[in-house]
Write a structure and sequence with these properties.
The chain is of the alpha/beta class. The chain has helices at about 15-30, 65-80, 120-125, 135-150, 155-180, 185-205, and strands spanning about 5-10, 30-35, 80-85, 90-100, 105-110, 125-135, 185. The protein has one domain (about 5-195): 3-Layer(aba) Sandwich (Rossmann fold), CATH 3.40.50. Helix content is about 45%, strand content about 20%.
């Protein structure tokens, strides 16, 4: 395979995307691009608002799709990309970093809105696979709450309320991401499929 291509890991918040991405990175040496770093900063006039007058961080409009696509294409075609470092607790960009492929034939891209890059990556010939990581909604709820509290992403009451909203919405979230081109899989299934992809990539590379 001459062209570096992307494995997209989509799925509900707390489903295990980041954990899976790190496992793929360790197992295969594939670089990782965290797409949640492309959230828009608080104060951006284009941020979507909820009926309560608060920023709706679960709306894809709170995320910079074009910037994410630009970074992914740069990684695949040039081997590096300058990307933001985003602090979810303050909803702001706190720095930048350069992500490189170091010659790897595959890049793993994961994030809440990752499914929205699938169609364009496929159109540009940069998509290798797209998976929606799924779990039981209550398991996802618990993992998400523990993580978000530990990272102090938002006030505890906000995290609790938002968590239950997302728990109830989870089947619809998975269905919507499937409609965008992501295949629903468990983390274990994804790891198994990654082994086959890695073997195919090695074979294609000679």
């Amino acid at each position: 395979m001459d062209q570096t291509r992307v494995i997209v890991l989509a799925g509900p918040s707390g489903a295990g995307k980041s954990r899976l991405a790190r496992r793929l990175q360790t197992a295969h040496g594939w670089p990782l691009l965290q797409l949640d770093d492309f959230y828009r900063e608080v104060g951006d006039p284009g941020l979507p608002m909820s009926p309560l007058g608060l920023v709706d961080w679960d709306d894809v409009g709170s995320w910079d799709l074009e910037a994410a696509l630009t970074a992914l294409e740069s990684l695949c075609r040039s081997g590096s990309a300058d990307v933001p470092v985003y602090d979810l607790s303050t909803s702001s960009i706190v720095g930048h970093q350069v992500v490189t492929t170091q010659g790897a034939p595959v890049v793993v891209a994961e994030g809440i809105f990752a499914a929205h890059v699938i169609a364009e990556l496929e159109a540009r010939g940069l998509l290798l696979a797209a998976w929606c990581v799924r779990n039981r909604p209550w398991v996802t709820f618990g993992r998400r709450l523990v993580r978000d509290l530990a990272e102090r992403r938002k006030p505890p009451l906000t995290l609790w309320r938002r968590g239950h909203v997302l728990r109830r919405a989870e089947p619809g979230i998975v269905a919507a991401q499937q409609a965008l081109g992501a295949t629903p899989v468990t983390a274990r299934e994804a790891e198994s499929m990654s082994e086959s992809l890695a073997a195919n990539v090695r074979s294609a590379g000679g």
